[in-house]
Amino acid sequence: MTSPPREIRLHAFDMACVGHIQQGLWRHPRDRSAAYTDLDHWVGLARTLERGLFDGLFLADVLGVYDVYGGSADAALRHAVQVPNLDPAMLVPAMAQATRHLGFVVTANTGAEHPFVFARRMSTLDHLTRGRIGWNVVTGYLDSAARALGLERQGAHDARYDAADDVMRALRLLWEESWDDGAMLRDRRSGVYADPARVREVGHRGAGWSMRGRHLCEPSPQRTPVIYQAGASARGRRFAAEHAECVFVNATTPPQVARLVAGLRAEAAALGRTLRVFAGITVVVGSSAAEAQARYEEYERYASVEGALVQSAGSMGVDFAALGDDDPIPRTGGTQAVTSNLAALTEGPAVTRRSFARQIGLGGRQPPVVGSPSQVADTMQDWVARADLDGFVLARTVTPECFETFVDLVVPELQRRGAYKTRYADGTLRSKLLY
């Protein structure tokens, strides 16, 4: 007797900017990413994703500009490589008002502001979305961001995670322990709104900061937002095992991802915890394989290799502009950036700038899945089975077309196979995802 197919969970991956992951596609005549400052653009996207029963919209963010390539931000500005960009948290209330079930995952840097202030912002979003908010925890990787915040450069990679541990402990005190469940009386007759005996000060001391006070928000539906994390380094995996509920990994090959997922799950299990693990995926789908291939080739004509190299330079700490086409990419970068990205690229035979540029494709970190709905569904189910994944984070290409075609073509195929839900469950984002 065959077991039923594993249900695939989906998030969309976007950023409030022009060029997110697939650089250069803003020039495509059907692309609408330059409308990122228009709320109607985001509300329309949210409605499309809810129509497709997506679990969430994962909103990336970065502080600072990509200025490693050529030692300047000029190329990033020319190609709109994640600059200009907006604060993703500000988009969420409008999208939440237009939807009922879709979750919203906001990326925010643990070192960018005081935990006391950040705690209120996330509680506010959790209230306004009725429990549909998640937080993608990042520690930053651009020295330009550190300088903008008054520092000389980013701290050492592992030290940033050490500092993030302290921030997480302070935030959990505010979200979980400052207000008791029964603190909210709202008693019109007695005139007591909140019971002072059930609201307490909490405190924590981190490196260079301290916090003592009462959380300013009454408990939100989830209290703590669903915690997402994307670190693949040894220190990042340890952080995920202790704090994360959902982890986002880059799709390299199924065996490599399977090893990473097994390690993540084992580290979490040792602490009595479980994880949902999602892989990044780029999909170009058509009603037939030929239509999908034609669409992919059309998209590729607009892709910017230099834009992709600008982004890779910032995330890996390697100035690709200083390398000749046949120079090998060094195994260590010049900054304390995303060390796991560089390690994954250089762990095998030497990779040159020329060969890396060929790998980039549409500008993403994983080869795009191109095909008919059945071919795309086959690939997704194969990855889930071979790598022990819970689902995928779908990166945008030409927007909103890429999400609309996926919802119209791939979602029905997955549903036909019993590998995708046909309705949302009720409840918060956490209850939908984790239980």
Structure description:
The chain is an alpha/beta fold. The protein has one domain (9-172, 215-304, 366-434): Luciferase-like domain (TIM Barrel, Alpha-Beta Barrel), CATH 3.20.20.30. The chain is built from 15 helices and 14 strands. It has helices at 39-51, 74-79, 92-97, 115-128, 143-148, 157-177, 234-243, 254-270, 289-300, 305-316, 339-346, 353-360, 373-387, 401-416, 429-434, and strands at 9-15, 56-60, 103-109, 133-138, 184-187, 192-194, 202-206, 209-213, 226-229, 246-249, 276-281, 283-285, 369-371, 391-395. Helix 4 (115-128) crosses helix 6 (157-177), helix 7 crosses helix 8 (254-270) and helix 13 (373-387) packs across helix 14 (401-416). The longest helix is centred in the middle third of the chain and has 21 residues, at 157-177. The protein starts with 8 loop residues before the first strand and ends with a helix. The model has no long low-confidence stretch (mean pLDDT 93).
Q: Which structural class should the secondary elements be placed in?
A: alpha/beta
The global form is globular
Helix content: 25-40%
CATH class bucket: Alpha Beta
What spatial order of strands do you see in the largest sheet?
Answer: 1-2-3-4-9-10-11-14
- CATH fold naming: TIM Barrel
Rg calc? 22 Å
- What is the number of helices? 15
CATH superfamily: Luciferase-like domain
pLDDT averaged over residues: 93
Low-confidence stretches: none
According to DSSP, the number of beta strands is 14
What's the CATH architecture?
Alpha-Beta Barrel
Please state roughly what percent of the residues sit in beta strands, choosing from under 5%, 5-15%, 15-25%, 25-35%, 35-45% or over 45%.
15-25%
Provide the domain count: 1
Strand-and-helix sequence, N→C? EHEHHEHEHHEEEEEHEHEEHHHHEHEHH
Terminal-residue CA separation = 26 Å
Largest sheet: 8 strands, parallel, barrel
Assembly of the depicted chains: single chain
